[in-house]
């Protein structure tokens, strides 16, 4: 039976991803079979995890996913490994207001202990009060140990360890080289980072040197070996052409894996390489990503755009994919780039506005799925113009407040800014 542990923090920016990547690779280098998961809807961190482990990483989202789906994904991840490391999201107890969805909720659901990563830059003895508060806030969420990050010196470490005692699993020194580049939606994608392997090995060296890996394995809890019935979203069709490159990288692995389990064939293609969707595909899926960074190149890729226009069956786009299905995309410099023209939509990155949050979605007539869905919205682009078309979803935020209807549909072509995660729990 595999063991599992959750890596969390008091707040975002504490160093969870750095510690997680270092721990994953350090365990792998020590000969352990290790896999990972990421709490919440994040697309980018899981690809870094995969680079560290060489294995798939799934999102586990207690707000958006039914418990049986979460347990099923954990069962998949732990089938042939020794230890599963789950990276949390934001602060340990942060999540949708008034609803389960935090890292703590995920740990409680799975009965897993938490390792707390504490940014020690501005901490001295008072760190003990911080850790005590997080350790006692919820009785169903055991904080099994602490990793101190960004420790300034040996004397600083001594003071912190004196305040916290045996709960300290390790102390990582401040190291400006252990920092990943970022852009407007988070970290620069793993496949774009040419120095990623060296970064992961440096992080692993720091974790292996400054922590006791055996203590992590002792603290980790066993994961039940159980057979779980999953409630995955059905595939869009039998043969699905899925855009996959640095412009269209935001496809949830659990969704694609669920489609494969249901017997669908996934046919990847690269719009940036001017590849058209496979002509035998019964549906086309354009995930989100960063099309705004490649708008000129996409606009010039005639084989890709003409292939989209000639596609048979359903054509579905999310966020960036939705933007590319429109008439035009205006980039950050105000330059207008012609897109596929399959939906009456012009989007603009010149007028930046953050749209962020979970979404409760009710599909309307012609949508790819029936029944209540859960999704997430995260983008800075705005809608500059819309024409006549059917709406795709009725929408609410995580708290149940009504939002304007989302998305557009014109015949078999449809899309929205929402990233669909799962059927509503």
Structural description of this entry:
There is one protein chain. This protein is α/β, with parallel strands linked by helices. It has twelve helices and 25 strands. It folds into two domains: 3-222, P-loop containing nucleotide triphosphate hydrolases (Rossmann fold); 239-423, Rossmann fold (3-Layer(aba) Sandwich). The strands form five sheets. Strands 1, 2, 3, 4, 5, 6, 7 and 10 form an eight-stranded mixed beta sheet that branches. The chain has a six-stranded mixed beta sheet with strand order 12-11-13-14-24-23. The mean pLDDT is 95.
How many domains in all?
A: 2
Query: Helix share of residues?
Result: 25-40%
CATH architecture identity of the largest domain: 3-Layer(aba) Sandwich
**Oligomeric state of the chains present here:** single chain
Number of helices: 12
How big is the Rg? 22 Å
* The CATH C-level class name of the largest domain: Alpha Beta
Strand tally, please?
25
**Global geometry:** globular
Mean pLDDT over all positions: 95
Biggest beta sheet attributes: 8 strands, mixed
Within CATH, the superfamily of the largest domain carries the name P-loop containing nucleotide triphosphate hydrolases
The residue ranges in which pLDDT falls below 50 over 5 or more consecutive positions are: none
Strand content: 25-35%
Could you tell me how far the N terminus lies from the C terminus, measured between alpha carbons in angstroms?
Answer: 28 Å
The helix/strand class is alpha/beta
CATH topology tier name of the largest domain? Rossmann fold
């Amino acid at each position: 039976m595999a063991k599992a542990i959750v890596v969390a923090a008091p707040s975002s920016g504490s160093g969870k991803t750095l510690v997680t990547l270092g721990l994953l690779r350090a365990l792998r280098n020590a000969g352990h079979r290790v896999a990972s998961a990421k709490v919440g809807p994040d697309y980018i961190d899981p690809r870094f995890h995969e680079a560290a482990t060489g294995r798939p990483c799934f999102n586990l989202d207690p707000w958006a996913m039914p418990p049986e789906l979460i347990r099923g994904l954990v069962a998949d991840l732990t089938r042939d490994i020794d230890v599963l490391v789950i990276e949390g999201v934001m602060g340990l107890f942060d999540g949708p207001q008034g609803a389960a969805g935090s890292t703590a909720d995920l740990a409680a659901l799975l009965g897993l202990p938490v390792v707390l990563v504490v940014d020690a830059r501005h901490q001295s003895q008072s760190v003990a009060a911080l850790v005590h508060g997080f350790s006692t806030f919820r009785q169903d969420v055991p904080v099994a140990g602490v990793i101190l990050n960004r420790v300034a010196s040996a004397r600083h470490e001594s003071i912190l360890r004196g305040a916290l005692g045996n709960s300290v699993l390790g102390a990582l020194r401040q190291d400006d080289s252990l920092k990943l580049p970022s852009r407007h939606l988070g970290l620069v994608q793993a496949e774009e980072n040419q120095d990623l392997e060296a970064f992961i090995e440096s992080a692993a060296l720091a974790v292996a040197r400054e922590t006791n890996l055996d203590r992590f394995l002792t603290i980790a809890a066993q994961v039940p070996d159980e057979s779980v019935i999953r409630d995955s979203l059905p595939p869009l069709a039998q043969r699905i052409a899925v855009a996959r490159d640095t412009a269209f990288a935001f496809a949830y692995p659990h969704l694609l894996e669920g489609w494969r389990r249901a017997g669908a064939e996934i046919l990847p293609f690269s719009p940036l390489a001017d590849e058209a969707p496979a002509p035998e595909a019964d549906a086309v899926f354009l995930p989100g990503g960063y099309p705004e960074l490649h708008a000129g190149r996409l606009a010039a890729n005639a084989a890709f755009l003409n292939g989209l226009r000639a596609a048979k069956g359903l054509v579905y786009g999310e966020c960036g994919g939705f933007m590319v299905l429109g008439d035009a995309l205006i980039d950050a410099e105000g330059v207008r780039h012609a897109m596929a023209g399959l939906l009456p939509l012009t989007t603009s990155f010149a007028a930046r506005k953050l749209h962020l949050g979970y979404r409760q979605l009710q599909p309307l007539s012609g949508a790819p799925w029936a029944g209540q869905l859960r999704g997430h919205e995260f983008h800075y682009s705005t809608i500059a113009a819309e024409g006549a078309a059917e709406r795709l979803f009725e929408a609410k935020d995580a708290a149940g407040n009504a939002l304007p209807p989302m998305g557009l549909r014109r015949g078999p072509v449809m899309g929205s800014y929402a990233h669909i995660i799962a059927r509503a729990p």
